[in-house]
Amino acid sequence: MSNIESILTENRVFEVSDEIKKTFSVSEEKLAEMRAKAAEDHVGFWSDLAREKLSWSKPFTVGLDDSKAPHYKWFTDGELNVSYNCIDRHLQDKSDKTAIIFEGDRGDIERYTYKELHDQVCRFANTLTAQGVEKGDRVIIYMPMIPQAVIAMQACARIGAIHSVVFGGFSAEALRDRIVDAGAKMVITTNGSRRGGKTIPLKHAVDTALEKGCEQVKKVIVYRRTDDEVEMQEGRDIDWLEAEAGMSNYHDPVAVDSEHPLFLLYTSGSTGKPKGVQHSSGGYLLNAHVTNEWMFDLNDNDVFWCTADVGWITGHSYVAYGPLSVGATMVMFEGVPTYPDAGRFWQVCQDHGVTVFYTAPTAIRALMKFGADLPKQYDLEKLRLLGTVGEPINPEAWMWYHDVIGQGRCPIIDTWWQTETGAHMIAPFPVTPLKPGSCTQPLPGIDAVILDEEGNELIGNEGGLLAIKQPWPSMIRNVWGDEERYRNTYFPLEGKPYYVVGDSAHRDADGYFWILGRVDDVLNVSGHRLGTMEIESALVSHAKVAEAAVVGRPHDVKGEAVAAFVVLNVDLPEGDERDALVQELRNWVSQEIGPIAKPDDIRFGTNLPKTRSGKIMRRLLRAIAKGEEITQDTSTLEDPTILDQFQKK
Ligand code: 6R9
């Protein structure tokens, strides 16, 4: 059996009962109608949605302006305010509805109704204006997962300032790079954060970042989240509450052009420094809005919890903007999944009656290690949809999520998308029949295709480079300040309109997409293409394996050989027993996929090297697999001691 076929030996199909299907807002018929309409009139489909779903202070007349392709503009002559759309328009009928339920690390709980959120956002918008921030200015937000982060983002949107949230786990260096690249005028931060029972300082990184090269930053607003002392620099640093004192609860939202940048979010590419992905106001909000309705079916009685940090795109579209735009109730959680114990996520779901839960495969696999008994101690009856995002989900984790957390009742919404796409691109609707490990089909109005290496479109049941053929409203508008990099990175096929994603994917006979991983994660072993994912999936399906990451390493004969980094869910045996386990795992992979996929090298550690957002740092693993010294930046690594474990053979 060939490599790529093997991932596709996953042929189980899961459908929810007709009874449950009836509870979802978008029926199969309605979905078919939407697909037909989008196929017939791409721009009309999105334009009608933009009119129906968003409130415009000045209606648009132009759907898509592609005169400067690949620099696309949507709804160009329209004006709106994103914060108005997320908050004010709900005040008429939902002003007392809970917008945010916040649970802190220590179990402290706060609730904000839409009216309270409105007042807070207005006060902070007035504060920003009083501190000299104007429309178009860039503001850095470097904060933990607390409601004030969302309030700060919404307040920026309200005055037309462009925010750039920098994940609180990034170092002072990384923060400085982003401040400088964005040309930010202000930084909003906290004295510290609370995670896993500890307090972690944050503001000091801002101080370090601002030591050089950031002269344009005139003000730093500091929210006191912890009781720890914080050094305030006279004339520059201002306490959030002091600055806000006396500010009005009313603020007239500033109408901006649909194309006005809402935010920049820095993301690493395969080369070079992080790119400032620039998103628009109208187009971005439209896709954030409709995907919360389509994929998560958010209705009046739902309590939605997306576990992503606001430092990532998921925390923008599925925390700060999308759920509010649809008028939902959402949970924000400050802590970590394993504090005070590995039942924390399930406790939060239970206590707040979460109905729709959205997390990453890495979290699922980490929690799987603790077994099925822990989640069973909590009442998860209210859950009705489960989402996943960030990386391909291996069928093993999918099944656990489905059976143990969803109790077989909840569809798994595997959402494929990127920082650059703004919102979900390939994902099931709740009524879609599911296949474990497949993100299923492109959304209506998303024209996903598969290309060969030369950029020719492949039709039918084939694997290749994933690309998007037609522009969509929430697409990246630019790499901040670098149009050439935008064109070269995303539209590399001269004269062809394809947005090239950087992932490889396979489309099966039913038109379902299977993401095989980043293009640079595809191995070529003896001329056979192997997705690292499928080998990982095979390893993880072994009873003793909790997690695995696979990379390629150069090999004289085969071109590339497979190196596997494995986390066991049993104690690591020593001596002969260890060798026997290595052999067992090699044979296991051979048996699961074929001898071609057998790892040459298997190493063990207590965790994989991950970024603090949970992405496995494969470039480090590749260096280790090659036996190279690590010269790369490891500042984003969650636990640097992991590297030593894996370096020992
Ligand atoms: C939203 C987000 C984007 C990359 C993307 C792909 C991987 C994300 C996935 C997935 C398979 C999914 N990815 N979701 N792969 N199935 N459901 O994660 O954005 O941080 O920019 O990462 O993540 O490789 O290209 P971002």
Automatic annotation (TrEMBL):
Enzyme Commission numbers on file: 6.2.1.1
Cofactor(s) of this protein: Mg(2+)
UniProt catalytic activity: acetate + ATP + CoA = acetyl-CoA + AMP + diphosphate
Keyword ATP-binding carried by entry: yes
Domain AMP-dependent synthetase/ligase, chain residue ranges per copy: 88-472
Source organism phylogeny: Bacteria, Pseudomonadati, Pseudomonadota, Gammaproteobacteria, Thiotrichales
Gene Ontology molecular function terms on file: acetate-CoA ligase activity; AMP binding; ATP binding; metal ion binding
Function, in words: Catalyzes the conversion of acetate into acetyl-CoA (AcCoA), an essential intermediate at the junction of anabolic and catabolic pathways. AcsA undergoes a two-step reaction. In the first half reaction, AcsA combines acetate with ATP to form acetyl-adenylate (AcAMP) intermediate. In the second half reaction, it can then transfer the acetyl group from AcAMP to the sulfhydryl group of CoA, forming the product AcCoA.
Record InterPro entries: Ac_CoA_lig (IPR011904), ACAS_N (IPR032387), AMP-bd_C (IPR025110), AMP-bd_C_sf (IPR045851), AMP-binding_CS (IPR020845), AMP-dep_synth/lig_dom (IPR000873), ANL_N_sf (IPR042099)
Organism of origin: Thiomicrorhabdus xiamenensis
Domain Acetyl-coenzyme A synthetase N-terminal: 32-86
Residue numbers binding CoA: 195-198, 314, 526
Full protein name: Acetyl-coenzyme A synthetase
Modified residues (N6-acetyllysine): 615
Residues where Mg(2+) binds: 540, 542, 545
Segments passing through the bilayer: none
One annotated Gene Ontology cellular component of this protein: cytosol
List of residues binding ATP: 390-392, 414-419, 503, 518, 529
Enzyme class per UniProt: ligase
Modifications made to the protein after synthesis: Acetylated. Deacetylation by the SIR2-homolog deacetylase activates the enzyme.
